[in-house]
Amino acid sequence: MAGRGPVPGRRGELARFVTVGAFTFVVDNTVWYLLKLTVLVEHPTTAKGVGILVATIVSYVLNREWSFRERGGHQRPHEAALFFAVSAVALVVNVIPLYVSRYVVGLQRPHVDLVTQEVADFLSGSVLGVALAMSWRFWAFRRWVFPEGVPETPKGAPRP
């Protein structure tokens, strides 16, 4: 199925998905750092989870309306339930590297200095965790949430 814009098909979907991901990466990290440096100082994995949750809500709207629009999708309640179920798995996948870095490897204060802790948090939570979760989401969104074979919604018509 042809994609919208200059890049057709699956590559177009991937390009749009990555663009949405880049935007929600900023949303996630902004919320995460605001919380972990203020009200959730002692709970960085909780702060990361909240950041991911906020970014997931933004991601649903952008992916539904732009990244996978041509796929038709399911009726919205069903589509939203699938989207958030896939995203719940992705949240766990995303937080595991941060949890391991902090609590298994011990890359947190007082065992390491603040700079080492923050670099380890960023690399584990925002690089490795995001990469793993993004791979899962792209595959699962195409497979279950926005599958091909569902009749397209005519341009300009509201989606079911």
3D architecture notes:
It is a single chain. This protein is mostly helical. The chain has one domain (9-145). It is 71% helix and 0% strand. The chain has helices at 9-36, 44-67, 76-104, 114-145. Mean pLDDT is 86; it is low at 1-5. The chain crosses the membrane at residues 14-34, 46-62, 82-100, 120-139. It is a multi-pass membrane protein. This is Putative membrane protein.
Compact summary:
This protein has 160 residues and is an all-alpha fold. The chain has four helices and no strands.
Through-space gap between termini? 20 Å
Q: What is the overall silhouette?
A: elongated
Mean of pLDDT: 86
Number of domains: 1
Q: Radius of gyration from the CA trace?
A: 17 Å
SSE pattern, N- to C-terminal = HHHH
Structural class: mainly alpha
Helix content: over 70%
Q: Which residue ranges are poorly predicted, with pLDDT under 50 across at least 5 consecutive positions?
A: 1-5
DSSP strand tally: 0
User: Biggest sheet, open or closed, and with what strands and sense?
Assistant: none
Walk me through the topology.
Blueprint lengths: L8 H28 L7 H24 L8 H29 L9 H32 L15
Structural key phrases:
single chain, 160 residues, mainly alpha, 0% strand
